[in-house]
Each structure stands twice: as C-alpha cells, then as structure tokens.
Amino acid sequence: MDNLTKTAMNPSQIALSTLAPGFTDPVHDTQAVFRTLLDALSRPGTVGVVENVLPAAQATGTHRSRADLAALAALLTLCDYSTPVWLAQPDAALASALRFHTGAPLVDDAHDAAFAYIHDAALLPELEHFSLGAAETPEQSVTLLIRVDALSGGPQIVLSGPGIEHTATISPVGLPEHFWRERASLAPLFPCGIDCYLVCGSTLIGLPRTTQAKVN
Amino acid sequence: MYVAVKGGERAIEASWRLLDKSRRGDTRLTELSVGQIREQLRLSVARVMTEGSVYDEDLAALAIKQAAGDLVEAIFLLRAYRTTLPRFGYTQPLDSEAMVVERRISATFKDLPGGQLLGATYDYTQRLLDFKLMAEAQTDGGDSSAQVAQQHAALQEAPESMPRVVTLLNKEGLIEQETPLSDASEPRDLTREPLAFPASRATRLQNLARGDEGFLLAMGYATQRGYAHSHPFAGEIRFGSVTVEMELDELGEAVEIGEIDITECQMINQFAGSTEVPPTFTQGYGLAFGHSERKAMAMALVDRALRAEELGETLASPTQDIEFMLSHSDNVEASGFVQHLKLPHYVDFQAELDLVRRLRAEHAAQTAQTAQTPHTSEAAQTSQPDTGHDQEEQAA
Amino acid sequence: MSASPASPSSAMRRAWMAVLAHTPRAELEAALSQALEGVSPPEFDWLRPPETGLAMVRGRIGGSGDAFNLGEATVTRATLRLRSPAEHAPVGVACHLGRDRLRAELAALADALLQLPEQHAHLHGQLIEPLAAQLAAQRASRRQEAASTRVEFFTMVRGD
Q1: Which residue of B has its CA nearest to C107?
Q2: How many domains does chain B have?
C-alpha cells in the first residue's frame, strides 16, 4: 500500500475553503470512535453510535461534506497516508478533508482502495470490483462504508455467526439486493473477503466477512 | 518459555532509584544539561541520530543523558520514542551537491573545483591526551583560536560551488554514473515493511544507514583485508548542511522546512568489467546524519561489497552476503536478542538439566556395559557406578 | 495560487516560507512583534493546531541516483485560517524541522498575514527581508570559516 503514489486527486486541488478542523482531542476522540467501530464489528447487528466528536461537522448549516458523521468520523480515525480511499460519489469537501487531515491518497480505481465510502447505496458497485485481500495478506482487503437511508424499516436480514449468540435481525433501508447475493458468494473465499459498515447519520452497524446473512 | 516472575515489584522500584542515583553520579559536580551534551558531545549526538534514525539533536542529547552515555541504549530510547509520533510524509531527496560545505576532501584528486577544505576534524590532530581539557569548566570569554581563524578567513574566499569529484571521472566515461530512473518505484521503507530478500540497493542503503557503526566498520575493514576484492579509494567525503524540502498538501508543492547536517562518502572501486561492459570504476555510497565520517566510509565500503552479485562478481566472502550482512546490522535488534538472554529461562533450563542428566546416565550405563564385556580389563570391571542412586539424589 | 497584481505569487510564498523555516523562534517572535508595530495580530481559527510528527528524509543513491529512505526527522506543522476577510480568508501554513509548536504558530500567522494584499508589502519589508539578510550573513560567515581551512597545495620546484 505504501508504494501507491498514483492518486486520482492532484494535491493542489485541496479545496482550502471547505476545510474544517478535525478532532478537537485527537487522542481520545479517535480512541472513542475506534472503540465504537470495533464493538460494532465484534457484535454484528448491534447499532454503534458515534457521539461527542467533530462538532464542526455536526453543526447544522455548516455541514461542508455530504458524508454522514459516522462515516466521516470513521474515515478520519482509520485512514492515514498508507490507506488509499475510493469515493463512489464525488465529494470535494470530503476528499479535501481526508487529504488534509489524514494524508490518505484518493484513488480512481475501486480495487486499489483500503477504504471506500458509498454515499448512494443504490449505486453500490459489484463487490468483485473491490480488493478481497490475498491468502497471505487477507487483511489487505477493502473496508466498505455504505450509507443507507435508515438502519431499520427495510427488508429483514437474519444474521448469524461469530459475535452473535443465536441470530440478530437487521433491516436497513436502501441497500440494493445484489449486495447480499454477492456478499454470500464471497463467503467460501475466507479468509479473503470484505468487511462492511452500514452507516446512517451518527449510527452504524458492522458486518464482518465472517457473518452469515439470510435475506427473508 | 519465559516464566512470569512475581514479587519483583519492590526490587524493581529500588533498582530504578539506584539507577537514577548512579546516572547522576557525584552530586557535588554540576549536573549535565541536555544543551551541553548537544553542543559538546555532538559526535555522540550524530551517531545516536543516525542509528536511532531520527534527526533531532535535542532528543538525541536527552537520550544520551538518560542512558548515562551508553549510545546503543540511547539509540534504543530514540527508536522507541519515534513510534509515538505520526508520520507526516517523505521529504524531497536531499541535494548534497548544494551542501553548505564545512569539510570536503578527496583522496583521488589533489586539485578539485572548490578545493579541499579540512573543516573541523580530528584527522590532523596528534592523538595526545590534552590535559588542558581537564581544567574546570570555562565559559566563553573571547577565544584566541577563533580570532586566528577569522584572520585567515579574511584572506580566503568562500568557494562558489562544489561539484562532485565523480563527475570529473565521468568526462571520460570512466565511472558508472548514478542517474535516477524515470519510472523508479517508491523506495521500500523498512520502518513500514519488514526486510525481505532480494533487497534492492535503496533498501540496503536504508538498512546500512541505520546499522551499527562498529559492525559496519569491522565489515568494511574486512573488505579491505581481502574479504571481497575491493581496492577502494575515497573519491569524496563531504560534511555540511543541506536544506530539506517537503511537499505540503495545502500548497501542492514542496517548500523548504529547514536544514540538517549530513556526511556523505563516495568510494571509488575498480571493476574488471565483463564481455559486454569494459572495465570502469564503480561506486560505493555512504550517507549519515551529523558529522559521521567513519560511519559513512564504512557504509560505502559495505555498500560496494553488497553489489558484488549485481555486478556479476564471484561471491567469496560473508561481507558480500546480503542476507547475512543486512540481518545483523541493526544494533537494537542485535542487542534485543543478545540481552533477552537475561530474562528468566527457568523452565527451558530445567528441561535442559533433565536432558543432560538423562544423557549422562545413558552414557554411564553404556560405559559400564562396555566394561562388562569379556574383552575389557579387570580394572574396569571393579568400577561400576551406581547410576540409579545418583538419579534419585538429583531429583530430590 | 493565482498570481494577480495584488496577491503574491507561489514562488514568492515559497521564498518567505523558507525564510520563516530557517529562523529560530526567538528571532521570529521578536521580528514579528516588531513588524506588527504593537498591533495585536488578527484573530484566526485553527484548521490544524500545531502538531509534531516525523518526515522520512530521503537521500539519493550515489548522491545523484534514485531515492532511498535515510532516516526520519522531527517536524512540526500548523495550519490556520484568518477570520477576516469573510470571503477568501487566507490560510496560513507552517511546517518546519524540530518540535517547536510556538514557532509553528508564529510562522503560520506570518504566512497568512503575508498573503493579505494590503499587508504584504509592509510585512515583507519589515519581517522577511531583515530575517533573510540575517540568514544570508550567517551562511556567508560559515562559508568563510570553512574556507579558512582550505588547503593550498604548493608544488616545490627544485631549481638549479
């Protein structure tokens, strides 16, 4: 990942006027966000909440990027100059924020991404376009952050597997149906695969590659 | 297997207090300040920065103070500290040809554009202990030697430019030139990815730059004594300051962020050539933080030796073995493994003890059996050790 | 950055940023307060408050070839945005070797102020030019000192 120097965005294109401050208390804020992300991935189906961080992003009217807070906080926490990011929908403010605060390179090719943010879930590309990792380095796969319209109210999905005692049911609104089909077809490739977060506002649900999902 | 040892907390705390006391030494003497170390032990600071792999004179001086002068321990402290700092990026490659030179010499040519500048060096001192330095601390009150230097300076003109010595040889195409490849990939970074083989020259140079000066010195010495067919000449050694530039995301271009002192050495070696390539001179390269000539020179000698394979030479000695050399150059790694032997290995050793006892018993039984056969002498028959009793006693 | 008659070019900006990066904190503090002539500096917001980190310093193989990673150096950086003018408020950036956060704050502030067309000429003349002259003098004196150790090889000619 360190050898990736070809970036989609020319650094000189950082839109300085869109920049807002990052974490007020970088050490504790990122620890708190990381804890939330870790818990969500460890207990798939539970809802994690990102709170008390990034006041500038939460203030109404000064929301410079379209990205939901949970996604922005996750990216600012996890990304650095060695984690290429792919944005499914153009968002100059988000790209500038990532570039400025984390140094993360923005890439054109989804396959090169360590993290990808999909703001419009309906336009989620086929999962095969992303990196699944390799046998010796399964961790070098993508982590997807997919924004959905709501975390509940949609079709019921029954989850089971590590981190879930029996089953857990989630019902996100706005995910295309091919997502669950493609995701299931990746299961035999374990340890390779894709980990996902479904984000909505300041909340999120974690879906590690080890979770089985049955569409009702 | 390491045994968890409890109950040592109080002893450890007492050990810390004793360490502080020992580090401080005689309290009737003024305590060393970090500034004093930075200014008056600058060559120690240079080594700690180079091998600790962090250019920060104050941090290196602090590490030296804390480690009571144990430089490898200080290097360890600096390496540990750097893990707490975020990485902002990579600088533009240094332009050593644009160096503000304080010292510049060549053993290959007498007359150089820009001349030979001796600078501040121990090379021309007579290595006699100077007992005047034992006098009590003096603060500056007008140093006569500085005045003499100023007078001389008035007579000299500062050199305009200092082009490289190797370019003089290049006019006849006599020396291989290092030119950047237009499609060169980013150099591997050993602070981000572990060492793997085969190792490119860039990786090797990073490893050697961080490597222990003593190890490189010994290996460089070996190459001169026949462990590699080197025949090196010091083409150029220069010490001085270079500006550092880095690209800033906000600007989208590189700006100067300060300057650092570096020492650079280019060694010139003979190369017999091959069927395709005529005989030419080849280079070895050394680069270090601060004033570190011995290090830069040794690094250049080792760099050349490690190029043997790439240059199609016969690999005849360990100094040319890339895996051997690069795996043992880091003194933090080496010190870690060597000194880890101090950790409790009680269970391991118990197993060893039992094994040795068992083998001894077998050995004794074997000896006894041999003694009982008809061919043995009567004297051997009378001495039959009672191995059964011995084992019981030891196990108790 | 566009080079309009009122705003300084990017080459000029790089030049004054270089001067700021080489100036020690004490000199910078004194020079800045003098250049501002007792007026307190304008208000600003931090986009990135001063933080210390590392930059990996690169050398070139053989001095002229491909890059290699030599070792890291401590670096401190800061980015701020002036509160006024409300539109196109200048963003001041500082990035320099070392761990001096206050120096980064002063340099970022100076960088922002120097981008204000109405302040530029005055501040450049009062702050940057004297500091640049000081740096040039220091460099010249170092060169002179080194030159005092230049070897003059006198060839002895035996004449008969």
Answers
A1: B257
A2: 2
Nearest to B202 among C52, C61, C95 (CB): C61
Lowest mean pLDDT among B2-6, B56-60, B302-306: B2-6
- Determine, yes or no, domain membership for C112: yes
Total domain count for chain A? Answer: 1
Does the CB of B201 have a partner CB in chain C at under 8 Å?
yes
Please indicate whether, in this complex, the C-beta atoms of C142 and B203 are within 8 angstroms of each other: no
B173 and B50 in a common domain: no
Give dist(CA B38, CA B35) in Å, integer.
Answer: 5
- Could you tell me if residue B316 is inside a domain? yes
Q: Indicate the number of domains in chain C.
A: 1
Closest Cα in chain C to B146 = C145
Q: Which domain holds residue B321?
A: 96-121+159-178+187-339
Lowest mean pLDDT among A111-120, A161-170, C80-89: C80-89
Residue-wise DSSP of C79-144: EEEES-SSSSPPEEEEEEESS-HHHHHHHHHHHHHHTSHHHHHHHIIIIIHHHHHHHHHHHHHHHH
Domain residues for A60?
A: 24-149+175-206
Structure tokens at B235: 């083409």
Residues from chain B contacting residue C46 (CB–CB below 8 Å) = none
pLDDT for res B389 = 47
| Residue whose entry in the numeric block shows the structure tokens 């009150």 | B141
Cβ within 8 Å, pair A81-B89 = yes
CB contact under 8 A, B186 and A12: no
Which residue blocks in chain A are alpha helix, DSSP H?
Answer: 26-42, 55-58, 69-78, 92-102, 177-186
> Which residue from B minimizes the CA distance to C13?
B255
Angle between helices C25-35 and C129-147 (to 10 degrees): 150
d(CA B320, CA B314): 9
Which residue type, as a one-letter code, is found at position C53? G
Q: How many CA atoms lie within 13 A of B37 on its CB side?
A: 25
Average pLDDT over residues B41-47: 98
Per-residue pLDDT tens digits for A148-167: 999 999 999 999 999 999 99
pLDDT for the residue numbered B230: 77
The band of A139, judged by pLDDT with boundaries at 50, 70 and 90, is very high
pLDDT bin (cut points 50, 70, 90) of residue B166 is confident
Torsion angle (degrees, nearest 10) of CA B366, B371, B375, B376: 140
- How many Å lie between the alpha carbon of A15 and the closest alpha carbon of chain B? 9
Q: Which residues of A touch C79 (CB under 8 A)?
A: 19, 100
Rounded to the nearest 10°, the torsion over CA C135, C140, C143, C149 is -130
Percent of chain A with pLDDT over 90: 81
B348 inside domain: no
> How far off is chain B from A18, nearest CA to CA, in Å?
12
Which residues 6+ apart lie within 8 Å of A197 measured at CB? A37, A40, A41, A70, A71, A74, A143, A144, A145, A146, A204, A205, A206, A207
Could you tell me the end-to-end alpha-carbon distance of chain C, in angstroms, rounded to an integer? 72
Contact criterion met (CB < 8 Å) for B246 and C147: no
Task: Examine residue B56 and state whether it is found in any structural domain, yes or no.
Answer: yes
Per-residue pLDDT band for B377 (boundaries 50, 70, 90) equals low
Please check whether residue B58 is in contact with residue B66, taking contact to mean a CB–CB distance below 8 angstroms: no
pLDDT surpassing 50 at residue B375? yes
B328 assigned to some structural domain: yes
Task: Tell me if chain A has a CB within 8 Å of the CB of C75.
Answer: no
